[in-house]
Amino acid sequence: MSVDLSAVISATAQWLLRAYPPGEGALSTALAEAQARQAVAVAAWLRYPTAVDASLLNVVGPGGSGRLDWLAGVETAEASEDEYAWRTWVDEVVASWAACLLADPRMAASAASAVADSEHLSGMACDFRRLTDPDARDRQAAILLRHPDLLAPIAELHAAELHDRLDQSSAEAA
């Protein structure tokens, strides 16, 4: 049974969508949100692979969006109390890893494969197609969210750790 990471997944996906807004229209918004949520879920499950890891996160908290806001140029000086509250559940490492996955569908496929047999997906089937194999409509809806140059400042923060984690997962599978 997976420990609930929904607060971190929701807040981190929301942060990505606000920092890299979708194209105009309800369909673009929905497609971009699906891609962000898939990327963040995979990143969170990689970052916190066991129920113990996820439980510890729920005790100590993820750290918030402060440095991410600064790097992405997101203005939060006049944030409401509600705005500030959800931002405390943003996980910098998860956001960085999700940015890596959004910028590189091959890496996303490797990450999705790495979490396929994780505790978090035990007994469930998940389709990460919007993340791993985005079609033209997906790409257009999330043009900023998938742009490698725009994502680079966030992705580069913790990309080395993601590569190490994926290398470990590949070695364990072999």
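Above is the first protein from milestone M3; the second protein from the same milestone is given next.
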Amino acid sequence: MGHLVTILGAGESGTGAALLAKAKGYDVFVSDYGIIADKYKSQLVEKGIEFEEGGHSKKKILESRLVIKSPGIPETAKIVKKIREAGIKIVDEIEFAFSYTKAKIIAITGTNGKTTTTLLTYHLLKEAGLNVGLAGNVGHSLAKQVIEDKYDYFVVEMSSFQLDGCYLLKPYISILLNITPDHMDRYEYKIENYVSSKFRIIKEAGQNDHFIYYADNELIADKLSRYISPVKRVPITLDDVSDQMVMKINDQIQIPQSETVLLGMHNAINMMSAIHAALIMGVSEADIRQGLKTFKNAPHRMEYVDTINGVRFINDSKATNVDAVKYALASFTEPLVWIAGGVDKGNDYSLIMDEVNAKVKALVCLGKDNSKLRDAFHNQIVNMLETDSIHQAVRSALEYAQTNDVVLLSPACASFDLFKNYEDRGEQFKQAVRELKNDFETKALEQ
């Protein structure tokens, strides 16, 4: 082909796009403003792909016919503005890969719950014997897998940033789990821009495609009331979940949540979405029931850690906004000791005040600046502690708790004040719990 394709950003998606472009005969140039990780650099070197790091060569980049941009690079970046001014098309890796695959795409987006639903959908299809791959925001490059293109289906987790770079993407099944305010800095602080980004998932959907969506979400319902599309609509609603937490699917299948490994109303939404997708793909009820029992979720999402003195410890470090915490709190009937805090992203804590009043007996504020969290709940919660130590947070939480209580790490905030990321926060929490349990077991043996 000979046309120059530039890849901006050499992470998982960027490197995958570079490898696919090279395999399809393009001249490929990779440019990363930061330092490229060794594992990706070695893949580029192996395929003879030219790259640069620590800056952008504007002259070369502006000679491109196409630019594939990492979703993490905002439109406000200087190099992106220059590319736009030059009239060069910019797409996402998912969009580029879609044009080279024969596989049907099951695409999943939403402010919260994407990873759980993506992994569960993939698990249900794979366990039922379908030839299916996993890709997207879960950390697997779709483009890299499309080089061999050996799968009949791909389950793809998609963020709004990835959707922003898609124009012709046409999933066979699209799932929209929810929309709540998030990443507002990337959308001019206009919620309608964020909603429009999410709805790009069905922009090209036709009458033979399917759209599974959470109908109880006001932003989704409002947009759909004015949205014209021939796609087959499959609404999910909590009206189909009984007080005994039994999920009703298509008025025929009834599955108690107690027969699954996922807790809470938010996971009922996730599961019903995945179940509907599996049914559309022809998976049997028996295989679905079995798959729901054997599923293992990604870590840091309502993850059971251990029990100490009859107190359960739950790691929900991925809950970095109030909406995610609301679902977490609603998952329990037991009294809670809540560990929260970090970098506040403009949280409105009034959204969870009722749940906190009903269930939280103590709050451990974990962060460098806990003032907003403290001010929001100091009238509601008598037992409150501030700390910047995860070990102190865990030990203090156990002191507040009694047998059959739950200690819940569900921060509602970003983690960058004390931790590298939410994964690091979750791992340190789990390690602190393990150390505390070891201390209790050691003392028990000494007595």
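Note on the second protein: The longest helix spans residues 422-446.
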